[in-house]
Amino acid sequence: MSAEASGSSGGNVVTVSGSAASSSSYAGEEKAGRSLAGSKYVKLNVGGTLHYTTVQTLTKEDSLLRSICDGSTEVTIDSEGWVVLDRCGRHFSLVLNFLRDGTVPLPENTRELEEVLKEAQYYRLQGLVQHCLTALQKRRDVCRGCHIPMITSAKEEQRMIVLYIFPVVKLQNNRGNNKYSYTSNSDDNLLKNIELFDKLGLRFNGRVLFIKDVLGDEICCWSFYGEGRKIAEVCCTSIVYATEKKQTKVEFPEARIFEETLNILIYENGRGSGSGGMALLESGGVSSTGVGQLEEEGASAGGGDRRVRRIHVRRHIMHDERGHGQQTVYKD
C-alpha cells in the first residue's frame, strides 16, 4: 500500500519538514516530538508493513498509539512521511480493527493468539489485552478437559500403558459379550460403573490416564496399572445360577474401585518403584477383601512385586441351593 508524502496533500497527512529532509545528519529521518493531533491521517510503517489510518482511530483508547499522536512519545518519521514503528507488522491490522470496532475475531491458533497478546501489551491496549487473556483462558480450560482414549486393539492398549508416564485405569465394558440374560439390577449397576469412571476421570485428570475398552471379553471389569504393569483388577460381573436358567449379574463395588484408584497413585512420578511402594500398596489393598474374593497371581520367590490382585465380586451365586434361613453359597 502506498501514499503520497508531499505538501500538496493539503497538510492533512503527517510529513517531514523540508529542513529535516535536507539534513544529512538525520539521514532522511527525524524524531518527531510534536503533536500529530492536528493531522487527519497517519501513515504507519510497522516492521515494513504499511498502514494508512486516521488519528481519530489511533486515539480511541489510552495507549501508546495515542501518546504518539499527542506528541508525548517520540517516533521516527522517514523521508517519505511514514511513521516508523520497530515492531512486527503481522498482527497490526488486527490492532487497528480492534481500535475501529471495539472488538475483533482472534486467531484460532494459540501461538498466534499469544503473539497478538504481546502486541496488545506493547501498544498498551488494555481492552485487547483482556480480550486475548479471556480467549486463552477458555482454550486452556478446554485443554484441561478430560480426554478418554478408546482402545481399538490389544497392541494399542499395551503401547499406551507402557509408554504413558502416569498410572492407568482401564474400564472394560462390553455389554454385548453376554450369552445369558441380565438380572433386574444389572443395567443400573453397569451404568453406575460407567458414571463412576467418568467422575474419577475428571477428579484425577492429569494424574491418572483413564482408558475405555469396549472390545474385550469382560462385560464390566476394572484394571489398574502402574509403571507399565497391571497392579489390580476388579471384576464386577458374576453368573447367577437360578432355578431354571443362568443369568449375568453386574455389581457396583464403588468403595473397592475407589480404593484401588487411590492405591495406584503411589506410582505417580515413579514413587511406586521399589519394595517400599509395593509394601504400601499391599498394606492398603489387601485389607478390604470383604467385597468379594481376592486372588493374587504371579507371586513367586524373588518376584513378589509382580503380583496382581484380582477381586471378583460374588461369583457364581447358587440361588437354588440356598435353604431357608441360610446364607448364599459362593463357589469358584
Feature tags:
332 residues; alpha/beta; seven-stranded mixed beta sheet; disordered N terminus; disordered C terminus
Task: Give a structural overview.
This protein has helices at residues 18-22, 55-58, 64-69, 92-101, 110-122, 126-143, 154-163, 186-203, 254-263, 274-285, and strands at 30-32, 41-46, 49-54, 75-77, 83-85, 150-151, 168-173, 181-182, 209-213, 220-226, 229-235, 237-241, 246-250, 293-297, 308-312, 317-318. Helices cover 32% and strands 22% of the residues. The strands form 3 sheets. The protein has a 7-stranded mixed β-sheet. It has a 5-stranded mixed β-sheet with strand order 1-4-5-2-3. The protein has 332 residues and is an alpha/beta fold. Strand 12 (237-241) and strand 13 (246-250) form a beta hairpin. Residues 1-28, 274-291, 298-305 and 315-332 have low confidence and may be disordered. The longest helix has 18 residues, at 126-143.
Short summary of the structure?
The chain has 332 residues and is an alpha/beta fold.
Write the layout of secondary structure elements.
Elements (H helix, E strand, L loop, with lengths): L17 H5 L7 E3 L8 E6 L2 E6 H4 L5 H6 L5 E3 L5 E3 L6 H10 L8 H13 L3 H18 L6 E2 L2 H10 L4 E6 L7 E2 L3 H18 L5 E5 L6 E7 L2 E7 L1 E5 L4 E5 L3 H10 L10 H12 L7 E5 L10 E5 L4 E2 L14
Parallel strand pairs: 2-5, 6-9, 7-9, 8-13, 11-15, 12-16
Antiparallel strand pairs: 1-4, 2-3, 4-5, 7-10, 10-11, 12-13, 14-15
